[in-house]
Design brief:
Layout (H helix, E strand, L loop, with lengths): L2 H26 L36
């Protein structure tokens, strides 16, 4: 096989592997992921949590 054929075969194999991984991830991924069933405008369903001022240091590692 020449170099172009080898690279083409490798590229095609990568596409097949990634397409398979994407399909498997969609089949067994978290339920409701990407379905749009949550509405952040509804009270109580926002992903934002007010945890006070941000210092850049996680609270589990903060120095006293």
């Amino acid at each position: 096989m020449n170099v172009a054929a080898k690279l083409s075969t490798y590229g095609l194999a990568l596409v097949v592997v990634f397409a398979g991984a994407w399909a498997a991830g969609g089949a067994v991924g978290p339920p409701g992921a990407g379905t749009g069933d949550r509405h952040p405008s509804d009270p109580g369903q926002s992903d934002h949590r007010d945890s006070g001022p941000t210092t850049g240091v996680p609270t589990t590692i903060s120095r006293k």
